[in-house]
């Protein structure tokens, strides 16, 4: 799933390639991806893009008073091409969800795609990004000035949920997903199952610093990369997420996994849980 560093890099790439260029046409392939109907998608035609921004994991492509907002969900991506087909794409079962073709340079444009059978990608055309429910609910972005030690400590007060879930809650912090929350907790030496309200003052301060450093490092790692290079760059920078069974790069212990119905987390017992191996609920059910 693209998280804030990858969406930030995608936004910068698109900003460089789209600013000042006029939309020749926007063609929807996946009807379920479009979540708004007024203004219509066709209203983008003839308008020039004047910038690309980011709200958490949402891309915001500005075209005058209109905003083309895209949430890539788990398996969505943006693919740039110097020559997209001129004929409107036909609806089908493939990954293509949306195609935007530019008037200049002739033939250039980009596709928004989504792999897999579960379709959660979302596209909005709005006059104000805050009209998008997911954006309206966003908490402070850890890469912005709004993310301060005081605001972070305040968000954790009285929070009974496990810290892993709190970090992924977009209404608490915008832009962190499954992968970077694993990386952050490993670097901060915290169990993903520890209640957020149970963190001591020193742990809160350490976690705050690690969040900023982890995301900043990831953004720098992605700087200047083309969209097709970003997924590999993200994976290469992960130390524990997606590396079940491999040695921890800090202590050498085996990286473990806890599986859920639709996701999994990875952690190091030595670095994070005092050597305790957390129960894998899915495996436990199989052993009964």
UniProtKB/TrEMBL annotation:
SMART domains: Fapy_DNA_glyco, H2TH. Keywords: DNA damage, DNA repair, DNA-binding, Glycosidase, Hydrolase, Lyase, Metal-binding, Multifunctional enzyme, Zinc, Zinc-finger. InterPro entries: FPG_cat (IPR012319), FPG_N (IPR035937), H2TH_FPG (IPR015886), Ribosomal_uS13-like_H2TH (IPR010979), Znf_DNA_glyclase/AP_lyase (IPR000214), Znf_FPG/IleRS (IPR010663). It catalyses: Hydrolysis of DNA containing ring-opened 7-methylguanine residues, releasing 2,6-diamino-4-hydroxy-5-(N-methyl)formamidopyrimidine. Residues 239-273 form the FPG-type domain. It comes from the Bacteria. Residues 2-93 form the Formamidopyrimidine-DNA glycosylase catalytic domain. Its cofactor is Zn(2+). PANTHER family: FORMAMIDOPYRIMIDINE-DNA GLYCOSYLASE. Belongs to the FPG family. This is DNA-formamidopyrimidine glycosylase family protein. It comes from Streptomyces sirii.
